[in-house]
Design a protein that fits this description.
Elements (H helix, E strand, L loop, with lengths): L1 H9 L4 E10 L5 E9 L8 E8 L2 H13 L3 E9 L5 E10 L2
Antiparallel strand pairs: 1-2, 3-5, 4-5
Length: about 100
């Protein structure tokens, strides 16, 4: 929820997702950081982002299908690892705001 909230706050018109990085957390485990940029020649398109983080592929499939039906597209997928050694798949999706 925190990453999705931060993505939405950072998406001023012209800013868009361009990549991500997985890094070691100070609390243990691995965390995902999204990279957004605003190019000088960018249009003023605004994006809405939704994040999926799950340990189960069945949940992932269901959530991706639901978001796809709402017009979202997956732009990134990675695996992060919590401090207690559990892995989860993190998918960033987006759709254009009209």
């Amino acid at each position: 929820p925190t990453m999705q909230k931060e993505l939405q706050q950072a998406t001023e018109p012209g800013c868009e997702y361009v990549g991500q990085r997985v890094f070691e957390s100070h609390f243990g485990g691995k965390e995902v950081a999204a990279i957004l940029e605003r190019r000088a020649d960018a249009t003023k398109q605004k994006w809405e982002y939704k994040l999926i983080a799950t340990k189960k592929t069945s949940s992932l499939q269901k959530e991706l299908q639901e978001l796809g039906a709402e017009g979202f597209e997956a732009v990134a997928m990675t695996v992060s690892e919590t401090a207690i050694g559990r892995s989860e798949v993190v998918v960033i999706t987006r759709r254009k705001v009209q």
